[in-house]
């Protein structure tokens, strides 16, 4: 038997409109397992974030494709990591180059 009309309306209006813990990975539902969804959550948050442009200093750099980052302010295209603009390895190399330059001077 069907529920009364008032009860059906109650269920429609009181449905969840936001995710509780899962945030951006809510689109995957219960699929793929909790651990994988947590890893994907971290990756997707970093890849959709806006980064500071090293040329103009504004928070306008967004990911265009894998490893390609584009500043919407100064229109510069920057090569970076797949999911974040500066990878840990790139930061290490940059620090090493700076140290070697200071020694050479």
UniProtKB/TrEMBL annotation:
<dbReference type="InterPro" id="IPR050522">
    <property type="entry name" value="Ribosomal_protein_eL43"/>
</dbReference>
<dbReference type="GO" id="GO:1990904">
    <property type="term" value="C:ribonucleoprotein complex"/>
</dbReference>
<dbReference type="GO" id="GO:0006412">
    <property type="term" value="P:translation"/>
</dbReference>
<dbReference type="InterPro" id="IPR011331">
    <property type="entry name" value="Ribosomal_eL37/eL43"/>
</dbReference>
<protein>
    <recommendedName>
        <fullName>Ribosomal protein L37a</fullName>
    </recommendedName>
</protein>
<dbReference type="InterPro" id="IPR002674">
    <property type="entry name" value="Ribosomal_eL43"/>
</dbReference>
<dbReference type="GO" id="GO:0003735">
    <property type="term" value="F:structural constituent of ribosome"/>
</dbReference>
<keyword id="KW-0687">Ribonucleoprotein</keyword>
<dbReference type="InterPro" id="IPR011332">
    <property type="entry name" value="Ribosomal_zn-bd"/>
</dbReference>
<dbReference type="Pfam" id="PF01780">
    <property type="entry name" value="Ribosomal_L37ae"/>
</dbReference>
<dbReference type="GO" id="GO:0005840">
    <property type="term" value="C:ribosome"/>
</dbReference>
<keyword id="KW-0862">Zinc</keyword>
<comment type="similarity">
    <text>Belongs to the eukaryotic ribosomal protein eL43 family.</text>
</comment>
<keyword id="KW-0689">Ribosomal protein</keyword>
């Amino acid at each position: 038997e069907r529920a009364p009309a008032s009860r059906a309306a109650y269920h429609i209006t009181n449905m969840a409109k936001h995710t509780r813990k899962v945030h951006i990975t809510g689109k995957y539902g219960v699929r793929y397992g909790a651990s994988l969804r947590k890893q994907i959550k971290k990756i997707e948050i970093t890849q959709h974030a806006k980064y500071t442009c090293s040329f103009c200093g504004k928070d306008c750099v967004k990911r265009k494709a894998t490893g390609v980052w584009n500043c919407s302010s100064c229109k510069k295209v920057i090569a970076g990591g797949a999911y974040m603009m500066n990878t840990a390895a790139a930061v290490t190399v940059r620090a090493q180059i700076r140290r070697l330059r200071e020694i050479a001077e």
